[in-house]
Write a structure and sequence with these properties.
By secondary structure, the protein is α/β, with parallel strands linked by helices. It is about 55% helix and about 10% strand.
Length: about 325
């Protein structure tokens, strides 16, 4: 049995199925979508225009079913675009060029369902541009396949993340980022990602927040979807921080704190570090950073004054 490494399981798919593939024209009404395909299919209008102008550059991939119809494996966006053209009167797409394959004949110790899922995932990985949500679905699928192969005793040469990255043409760091996103993002925001209504940068920021904060932000998104962006998240966090500070200022139930000289030891050490740095000579600060440094100096001075006031109001022991 061949070990999965290097080019990954793709080599097995190509070797096992290459001789069994053929290209044929299939009536468009005989092609049924694959229920395991949960990918987004945005941008159909532009794709249809491209197919209308230059034709179909790559046939779609299907599997023949016992009833004589064909189940789609790869190319749902292209098929949807051709259906749109046909509805608009372009009869060239009554017959669709297809690669007919039989994924269950792959020599792997997993179920036919997983073989089909593998073929669907890898075919689309190579033939289309995917959203981060699509890639998250791919990672879920590959995790299922990896677990099934491992449970069956298949000789895997890679650990799970490397296996996923190899077979989906991703870097391991990208897989790690998307796994974190999938594991920590609120389901409501995942649905927005699937609909391409939430940028990945905003989704990543939200995924790092506790569930209660994500729920509150989801409510804000539903109240004003058009205005929801990174600024909305930052505003929410500032409001939450301010509310926490106000609550702490009015909360008299906290435990007492005894403050001695050791209380400022850490601050004193940080000042010494800065003093040592400057003892080597004056330093010129870039204009863009000098304003920030002066702002920080002012903030430190104000915070120290606040600390002095709090400590001064304390009771001597």
């Amino acid at each position: 049995m061949v070990s999965l490494n290097g080019s990954g399981i793709n080599g097995i798919l190509n070797t096992a199925s290459g001789s069994k593939m053929k290209i044929t024209s299939v009536p468009i009404e005989d092609i049924v979508r694959n229920e395991q395909n949960e990918y987004s299919i945005e941008g159909i209008d532009s794709l249809a225009a491209s197919i209308h102008d230059v034709g179909l550059r790559q046939p779609i991939e299907v599997k023949r079913l016992p009833d004589g119809t064909y189940q789609l494996i790869g190319g749902e966006r292209r098929l949807t675009a051709m259906k749109k053209l046909l509805e608009e009167g372009d009869t060239r797409w009554q017959m669709v060029p297809c690669v007919v394959s039989n994924p269950p004949e792959l020599d792997l110790p997993i179920s036919d369902e997983l073989k089909e899922l593998y073929a669907l995932t890898t075919t689309n990985a190579e033939q289309r541009s995917k959203t981060d949500h699509d890639k998250m679905l791919d990672i879920q699928a590959m995790r299922r396949i990896y677990t099934a192969l491992k449970d069956a005793g298949y000789p895997l040469a890679e650990y799970q993340r490397s296996f996923i990255a190899t077979n989906l043409n991703m870097s391991e760091s990208q897989v790690q980022r998307l796994e974190y996103l999938d594991g920590h993002l609120n389901d409501g925001f995942k649905q927005l990602m699937a609909a391409e209504k939430l940028p990945s940068t905003v989704a990543t920021m939200i995924s790092k927040l506790p569930e209660e904060d994500q729920a509150a932000l989801l409510q804000r998104q539903r109240e004003d979807p058009a205005a929801f962006n990174t600024g909305t998240v930052m505003t929410y966090l500032r409001e939450k921080s301010k509310a926490a500070e106000e609550q702490a200022a009015t909360d008299d139930t906290g435990a007492e704190l005894t403050v001695g000289k050791d209380f400022i030891a850490e601050i004193r050490q940080q000042v010494r570090d800065i003093d040592f740095l400057l003892s080597k000579g004056d330093r010129r600060i870039q204009k863009a950073r000098s304003a920030k440094l002066l702002r920080l100096q002012k903030q430190v001075r104000e915070k120290l004054e606040d600390m002095f006031e709090v400590i001064d109001l304390g009771v001597k022991k």
